[in-house]
Amino acid sequence: MKKSALVFALLAMSVAVSCKKPQPKAQDVPPVPTQPPPAPAPTSAPVQEDEYTRLSKMTADEIDRLKLFDEVHFDYDKADIRESDKPILSKNAATLKKFDFIKLTVEGHCDDRGSVEYNLALGERRAKAASDYMVSLGAPAGQLRTVSYGKEVPLCSDKSEDCWARNRRGHFTVTEKIKK
Question: Which of 32, 56, 47, 27 is nearest to 178 (CA)?
Fold first, then answer.
C-alpha cells in the first residue's frame, strides 16, 4: 500500500503542476505605452555677425594681422604699377571701400641699391602710385596715406635678384580706425 500511496501522490502532483496556469515571462509582457519625451524647446541659433560688424569691433592691429591687403611689387628703379599687380590693387581697393572705417597706410619700399635719399624718393613714388591707382578704382582717398621707408626696412638682406625683387614692394598696413 505504501507503493500505491506514493504513486498516487506523484500522480496528484503531476496533475496539479500541469493544471497550473503558466505565468508570462517579463519579456512576454507588452510594454505599457508611454508618451514620447517632449521635443526640446527650440533654441535660436547663434546669429552670425557679418564680417563688417565683426571687424568694426576689432582694433586696427587686430585687423592688420588678418592680412586683408596684399602687397604689390615693382621693377628695378621703377614706380609703375605692373599689369600683374593691378588685380591685387583692385581687390585692395574693393576691401577698403567695403570696410569704410579702416585707414590704410601704403608703404613704399626699395632694395638696398642706391643712396638713402634716392630710395626714400623712389619709395614715396611707389607708395603714391599704388595709392593713386586704388583711388582711381573708387577707394576713398581719405582712407589712404603714404609713407616711404626706402631701403630702411628690407624683407631680406641677401645680395641676390630674388631678394632685391622681394624688397621692391608696396606694403599695406591698417594703421587706424576711423570713428563713425
Answer: 56
To the nearest 10°, the Cα dihedral for 121, 127, 130, 134? -130
Number of structural domains in the chain: 1
CATH number for the domain harbouring residue 74: 3.30.1330.60
Rounded Cα–Cα distance for residues 138 and 131 (Å): 11
Cβ 105 vs Cβ 175: under 8 Å: yes
Mean pLDDT within 34-52: 69
CA atoms within 13 A on the CB side of 11: 6
Residue in the block written with cell 571701400:
97
Alpha-carbon distance 152 to 14, whole Å? 111
Ramachandran sector of residue 77 (left: φ over 0; alpha: ψ -120 to 50; beta: rest): left
Give domain status of residue 44, yes or no. Answer: no
Q: Give the model confidence (pLDDT) of 46-76 as tens digits.
A: 556 799 999 999 999 999 999 999 999 999 9
Cα separation, 21 vs 32, whole angstroms: 23
Q: Rounded to whole angstroms, how far apart are CA atoms 88 and 93? A: 9
Q: Has residue 165 been placed in a domain? A: yes
Spell 9-19 as b/e; 16+ CB within 10 A means b.
Answer: eeeeeeeeeee
Specify the pTM.
0.73
